[in-house]
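Entry 14. Ran structure prediction on the chain below.
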Amino acid sequence: MTKYEYKVGIYRESMIGSLFLAGSKVDPIKFSEFLNKNGDAGWEVITMEREIRRMLLFFKREAFLVVMKKEKSGE
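Output, structure tokens:
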């Protein structure tokens, strides 16, 4: 029987863009690098959800909640 381990990652841009531009969107190149780095480590994306997170009452920034899995080793 195959066993898996799971990981939840949150990808978001830095607060600087939100502070200066009153909002910050995810950079697709940096987000791809985040996904590829986890993929190289054996993690497979199961699902992801986009959300807008508020900070300091008036500022917003885009974030992605990413759920990943990989096969457990050694069991």
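DSSP finds two helices and four strands in the chain. Will compare against last week's run tomorrow.
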